[in-house]
User: Fold Phage portal protein from Stappia albiluteola.
Amino acid sequence: MGFWSRLFGDADAKSASTLELFREIYGGREARSGVSVNWQTAIEVATVLACVRVIANGVAQVPWRVYQDQGRSKRPAVNHYLYPVIYRRPNKWQSSFALRETVMYHLLLTGNAFVWKGMVGSKREIRELKPIEPHRVTVQMTDDVLTYRVQADNGQAAVFPADQIWHLRGPSWNTWIGLDATKLARDAIGLSIATETAQAELHKNGARVGGLLSVDGNLSKEQFDFLSAWLDKHAIGGERSQKPLILDHGAKFSPFQMTGVDAQHLETRKHQIEEICRAYGVMPIMVGHADKTATYASAEQMFLAHVVYTLLPWYERIEQSADNELLSETDRADGYYTKFSPNGLLRGAAKDRAEFYSKALGGPGARGYMTPNEVRSLEELDPIDGGDTIPEPMPAGPSEPKPTGDENDGSN
Assistant:
């Protein structure tokens, strides 16, 4: 049985509007630049693709597990039914990384992501998670009850209750549908598409006018056609565009230099990179648009800022959504929750970690605030015996040597 057959089951199928689906996939509101912008045209913009990729990778690459709060300790709940689903294999053809990557592409480009929950048994334990393309789903709110109308490849559609669909939302205005970042930033994205298209057309086949070729006297039609054909063959396009010309009969070639319009065009393209990065909350350096004054040290701090200000809010959003929609009330009451572990992204250099751990464990005259085993867990090392207590502070300075009793008292 295919996925759609399993998903629809015995639900009553009804015809869907082909025109509605076509508009949803290929339509999009026109930006002020005159370009129609939707998720498909937006993702073809290099900056949009880079922003989406860097966030999606940041969410997909860190471990995501089910934990249980046991009072004084919080342990991975490796025996919980959801643990292998989100940590290893959510479905037959995707890894945990691939699922989260797909979900983030949907979420970032459309503001919403939808995942079908494959549940088994009387307890309805989730054993499978399968993402559904956003354009196939219509969200309906009736009397504070959410339902999801899902359309299949064959044009049939069925309505599913909220407990069968995991709906992740981006920032929302009405609380039940996420805002579409692509539509909100359509003017910035549209201008980027327009300038990219204009520049591509300008350079198509190397036909941009690079200079003026003048000759003494008038050219006959045969001479003009011959000269044009010769230039097309020997001086225009690809590797030939930079070869020097050998001219006679008083012919002169005057190259055209970059104009103010050209320079402004380049500045516009750079500005659009920054505008799109602002829309997605990504620092330009993360998409390869770095300031000339950036140093290794400043780049490292910007990377840490990317984790804190860009990725951590997404971690929190997904964690809370998963806790509410993938765990049962009984699970939550028993202390189960999901958690991303981005410590590896925040570890920094070995020297920086050593200094941090040294202060955390305490030093001369200063009491620490972490136990040795807490430090070891951050480095993914096994605990040691006696490592669950905070070390006592060491003396602030060297102690005075005790007299031995046989020191020289000055007598002969």
